Amino acid sequence: MINRKRLLSLGTLSMILFWPSSAWAINFSLNPVVLEINPQKQLNTQTKLVNLEGVPVAFTVEVFKWTQQNGQDVYSPTRDVLVNPVQFTLAPRGSQVIRVGLRKKPDQPELTYRIFIKEVPATLPKASAAAQGAATATSASITTVLNIGVPFYVTDASSRADLKTSALLRDGVVVLQATNQGSRREVMRNPLLQAAGKELRLDSRAVLGQSFITYVLKDLPANTRSVTLTYTDNQGKEHSETLDVQQ
């Protein structure tokens, strides 16, 4: 379960959710924050969004196919997944169950999607020209929206992850690459990199099957010879390895 406040600017909390990144006016909770089904047992699941304060908020819901290309997340329109409802308004202290169902027969060991639950900005009442001028002279208006990206995995029980990591020098910059040669995603939680007397905390990310991700380490000098990486995987196992930087 996650319970966060809406912030003044939108940022990525982790590989799991997208939340804004500074101080909030409205509280929400979402449970669960990751959806997964075994298609041999079920084809649908659900999550629940709760408005914890006293202001109504409208949302829309969209589903995208999630792949990784050239080390980056890519989201494409899809009709594979049905969500209900696709738009709703959360009453003060109200809640909404969001139901998700697969519409196609799985054709690979794991299918990966993102369900984006996005706040619709409230329409403010029009002020007089004088009032607008006074407000502009004394303050800046910031409009923010909540945008939650919920992973949805359709996973065969026989699928397995096979993650390999490497470090290389690319155009004078050290790059950490994680390659998943398996058929199931792997997650690098709380990755920590130590090199050249520095300690770098990296974003947690998922590495989809038959894909790779990269971390560009601009804070490291080009003459870095090796890096030590530690992280926790999707099963809670801790990993630590020292990687030579490939020149």
From TrEMBL:
Alphabetized Pfam families for the sequence: PapD_N
GO biological process: cell wall organization
InterPro entries recorded: Ig-like_fold (IPR013783), PapD-like_sf (IPR008962), Periplasmic_pilus_chap (IPR050643), Pili_assmbl_chaperone_N (IPR016147)
GO CC field: outer membrane-bounded periplasmic space
Keywords in alphabetical order: Signal
Residues covered by the Pili assembly chaperone N-terminal domain: 39-129
Signal peptide: 1-25
UniProt key word Ligase: no
Protein name: Pili assembly chaperone N-terminal domain-containing protein
Origin species: Deinococcus cellulosilyticus (strain DSM 18568 / NBRC 106333 / KACC 11606 / 5516J-15)
Lineage: Bacteria, Thermotogati, Deinococcota, Deinococci, Deinococcales
